[in-house]
Amino acid sequence: MASHGRPNYVAIWGWLVALMILGLAASFLPGARGLAVALIFATAVAKALLVALNYMHLKFEPRLIYAIAIVPVLFVLMLIVALFPDFVFSR
């Protein structure tokens, strides 16, 4: 197995903090609740990718790992799409 460099953990942590602040700020957006929920979900996906690729070192794994991981991701996406109306239109 080829050696790989270590990710810049401090930079990844900085991105995670910035995305957390963006998601928190989105909850205070006036008006369009659907836009806020979509922005919160988008930041959550970005944070999950950063953690998986860098802290779990998945970007250095063989391509088979991605084929195995895609099924749960598709289930999560289907769940998000199915529950999105409940988040947006609940009173």
Which whole number gives the mean pLDDT?
A: 85
Assign a percent range to the helix content.
Answer: over 70%
Amino-to-carboxy terminus distance? 54 Å
Low-confidence stretches: none
Count of helix runs: 3
Shape: flat
Biggest sheet statistics:
none
Q: How big a fraction of the residues is strand?
A: under 5%
Number of strands: 0
Structural class: mainly alpha
The oligomeric status of these chains comes to single chain
- Structural domains: how many: 1
Radius of gyration: 16 Å
Give me the strand/helix succession: HHH
Features:
91 residues, mainly alpha, single chain
Question: Would you give an account of this structure?
Answer:
There is one protein chain. The chain has about 90 residues and is mainly alpha-helical. It has one domain (about 10-90). Helix content is about 75%, strand content about 0%. It is built from three helices and no strands. Helix 1 runs antiparallel to helix 2 (about 35-55).
Topology:
Elements: H1 9-26, H2 33-55, H3 64-89
Helix pairs in contact: 1-2, 2-3
What's a concise summary of this model?
This protein is mainly α and 91 residues long. It has 3 helices and no strands. It has helices spanning 9-26, 33-55, 64-89.
